[in-house]
Design goal:
The chain is of the alpha/beta class. The protein folds into 3 domains: 5-177, Aconitase, domain 3; 182-268, Rossmann fold, CATH 3.40.50; 279-394, Aconitase, domain 3. It is built from 15 helices and 14 strands. The protein has helices at 5-11, 17-33, 51-67, 95-110, 139-149, 158-167, 196-210, 225-238, 253-256, 268-278, 296-305, 321-330, 332-338, 367-376, 386-394, and strands spanning 38-40, 43-46, 75-78, 134-136, 169-171, 185-189, 215-218, 245-246, 262-266, 286-289, 315-319, 342-345, 361-364, 380-383. Helix 8 packs parallel to helix 14 (367-376) and helix 11 packs parallel to helix 13 (332-338). The chain is globular. The protein starts with a helix and ends with a helix.
């Protein structure tokens, strides 16, 4: 791999021990994947934030790095934490969990990382431009950045994204290269897609089928950014899809299609089968929306769905702190809380210790959450549309 003289100084420790350690990690990655050089990044997004996910080894690693006073070189946002950082007491998060979680947050803050705690950085102030190189590490954020925006990032791990943030560089391989962004499987969609959960169910099916290949969708007539978010998140969870193209909708679709691709088809019956597979429970103890984190439109939609209702069992909607502030101003939070619901910031059902908070069956409209909850949180899942789940919690 070609390194500039400045980069050689980083590798040799002339820029400090932390930069040397972080840069060596990036060089090793580049060597493994055949990168020809390092390239500058516009921003980073670091995962490995929840104490539930990283435990004491991760906490000690981060505090050790922070104690050496490194400063990130580019705008760097943080993935969701394991709890609402401000209202964790009101939501009955365990106090011992909160103590360790706040130490993790403090370590990141000392490195100059913005404590956004969101998996939708593009909705919270970190919106990349088309073609910009990034080092993002949350699977749904990676998918959205690559597919819907047309920026360029590989599936970084938490340590490699942190290393890229501190060095301002990433190895030039994989999805940073145009030839690696070409479609690999043609997906013909014959199903009628209407709701967020429909797109999540389709994403679940496609991810299971294509694994880590790049799908090219035909037959999707229209899709909102929230629906594309749901599609990509589910494919990243059930498979390892980091980039997809949708004919007539996503920005690179025209240039990344190839002839003679393997084709798979999905119809309404396949969608029904996906709903059946994702449903493993019967009556939710709690319903949680916002995986990936909810947009303002989704929060407003829930506020409308709850108008005039009184919940028998809890509903949360997870979002970024920034989006919650706007929801407060719009009156959405008040309307949701009057019905008995909560707008929860900084976390989501997947990285929160909900299994220790008395919940055994969780209702979701997210294909990603439905994939992860049984394993990560020991939950049975009720998967359905927002309207159906609200109705269920109101009975």
């Amino acid at each position: 791999m070609y390194l500039t003289k400045e980069q050689e100084k980083m590798l040799n420790g002339e820029k400090g021990k932390v930069i040397e350690k972080m840069f060596r990690l990036l060089v090793r990655l580049g060597d493994i994947y055949g990168a020809d050089q390092m390239i500058p990044i516009g921003s980073a997004q670091v995962s490995g934030v929840s104490f539930k996910s990283i435990g004491f080894p991760g906490l000690e690693f981060l505090e050790d790095i922070a104690s050496k006073n490194p400063e990130v070189k580019v705008l760097t946002f943080l993935n969701p934490a394991g709890m609402d950082l401000e209202d964790w007491k009101k939501l009955n998060y365990p106090a011992d969990f909160a103590k360790h979680q706040l130490r993790i947050i403090d370590a990141f803050k000392r490195m100059g990382i913005v404590i956004t705690s969101t998996c939708t950085p593009y909705l919270a102030g970190n919106l990349p431009r088309f073609g910009e190189h990034l080092a993002w590490s949350e699977s749904s954020a990676i998918s959205f950045a690559n597919s819907v925006i047309g920026a360029r990032t590989n599936r970084e791990g938490g340590p490699s994204a942190l290393a890229a943030a501190i060095c301002g560089l990433t190895p030039n391989y994989g999805l940073h290269l145009s030839e690696k962004r070409k479609a690999q499987v043609r997906v013909k969609v014959n199903a009628s897609l209407k709701t967020f959960s429909d797109f999540g169910a389709l994403g679940y099916l496609v991810g299971m089928e294509v694994k880590n290949k790049i799908p090219y969708f035909v037959g999707i007539k229209n899709a909102s950014t929230d629906q594309l978010k749901a599609l990509g998140a589910a494919m990243a969870a059930s498979g390892a899809v980091a980039l997809y193209h949708v004919e007539g909708i996503t920005p690179e679709a025209k240039t990344m299609m190839r002839e003679g691709l393997e084709q798979i088809e999905f119809g309404d019956k396949d969608l029904e089968d996906a709903y059946q597979k994702l449903n493993t429970g019967e009556k939710p103890d709690i319903v949680i929306f916002g995986c990936p984190h909810a947009s303002l439109q989704e929060i407003g939609r829930l506020a409308s769905e709850l108008e005039g209702k009184k919940l028998k069992r809890p509903i949360w909607i997870c979002t970024s702190r920034m989006m919650k502030e706007v929801a407060n101003r719009m009156g959405y939070t008040d309307r949701i809380e009057r019905a008995g619901g909560k707008v929860v910031a900084d976390t989501c059902m997947v990285v929160a210790p909900i299994e220790k908070m008395g919940y055994k069956t969780t209702g979701v409209n997210s294909g990603k959450a439905a994939c992860y909850l049984p394993g990560f949180c020991k939950q049975k899942v009720v998967f359905g549309s927002m309207s159906d789940l609200v109705e269920e919690q109101s009975k």
